[in-house]
C-alpha cells in the first residue's frame, strides 16, 4: 500500500469514528429544562398535553388532546428543538379547531420553566404575538400564563394551572 492510500484510509476511519461518536452522544443540551415536563399527562379541564423526547433528546414533541362526547381527539401537535443557525430553541406547532393554524415559538428554557415569544397565524394568514410562560410549581404542577404585548408592557390574556397525571408506563420507568 502506498503512503497516499494509507492516509486516505486513516482519514476515512477518523471521519467515520467521529461521526459515530457524535451520533451516540444523545442528550438534551439546551433542551435540558424540558426534562421536568417529560412524561405523564398535563391536564387542564377536559384537555391534556403529553410531552416526550424526540430522537437523541434533540427535540421535544408535544401533543394536545381534548376529551369530549365523541371521545378524545388530537387538537395540536408540534416540536421544539435547538436551531443551530439561530442559536436558540424554536418550536413549530399546528392546531385544529382553535382558530389558529400555526404557532411559531422562540423559547428560553430556565430552571424556573419556559418563556416563549409566540407568533400565531390564523387560517387567513393574519399574525398575532404573545408571550407564554410555563412556571414550574413543584414536580407535578406548572402555572401557564399567556400575555399580549401592549404599549404599557405585557397584558395578561389567560392563566391556568396544569397538573400531571402519571400513567402506568411512566411510573414503571421511574418517570414522574
Could you explain how this protein is built, in words?
- The protein has helices spanning 3-23, 168-172; strands at residues 41-44, 47-53, 59-68, 71-83, 88-95, 102-110, 113-121, 127-136, 141-150, 153-165.
- The protein has a single domain (27-172), classed as Calycin beta-barrel core domain (Lipocalin).
- It has a ten-stranded antiparallel β-barrel with strand order 1-2-3-4-5-6-7-8-9-10.
- A hairpin with a 5-residue loop joins strand 7 (113-121) and strand 8.
- With 176 residues, the chain is mainly beta.
The biggest sheet amounts to:
10 strands, antiparallel, barrel
Structural class: mainly beta
Q: What is the global morphology?
A: globular
Helix content: 10-25%
The number of distinct structural domains comes to: 1
Alpha plus pi helix count: 2
Say what the CATH topology is: Lipocalin
CATH superfamily: Calycin beta-barrel core domain
Q: Which H/E pattern describes the elements?
A: HEEEEEEEEEEH
Give the terminus-to-terminus CA distance. 58 Å
Radius of gyration: 21 Å
Q: From the coordinates shown, what is the CATH architecture?
A: Beta Barrel
CATH class, anyone?
Answer: Mainly Beta
DSSP E strands, number:
10
Write down the overall mean pLDDT: 85
Strand content: over 45%
Amino acid at each position: 500500500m502506498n503512503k497516499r492510500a494509507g492516509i486516505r484510509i486513516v482519514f476515512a476511519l477518523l471521519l467515520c469514528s467521529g461521526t459515530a461518536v457524535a451520533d451516540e452522544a444523545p442528550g438534551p443540551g439546551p433542551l435540558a429544562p424540558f426534562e421536568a415536563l417529560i412524561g405523564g399527562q398535563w391536564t387542564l379541564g377536559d384537555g391534556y398535553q403529553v410531552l416526550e423526547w424526540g430522537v437523541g433528546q434533540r427535540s421535544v414533541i408535544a401533543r394536545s388532546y381534548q376529551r369530549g362526547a365523541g371521545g378524545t381527539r388530537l387538537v395540536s401537535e408540534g416540536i421544539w428543538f435547538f436551531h443551530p443557525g439561530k442559536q436558540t430553541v424554536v418550536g413549530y406547532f399546528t392546531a385544529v379547531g382553535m382558530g389558529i393554524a400555526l404557532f411559531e415559538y422562540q423559547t428560553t428554557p430556565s430552571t424556573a420553566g419556559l418563556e416563549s415569544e409566540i407568533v400565531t397565524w390564523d387560517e387567513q394568514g393574519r399574525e398575532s404575538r404573545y408571550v407564554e410562560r410555563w412556571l414550574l410549581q413543584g414536580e407535578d404542577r406548572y402555572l401557564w400564563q399567556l400575555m399580549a404585548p401592549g404599549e404599557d408592557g405585557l397584558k395578561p390574556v389567560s392563566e391556568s394551572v396544569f397538573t400531571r397525571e402519571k400513567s402506568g408506563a411512566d411510573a414503571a420507568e421511574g418517570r414522574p
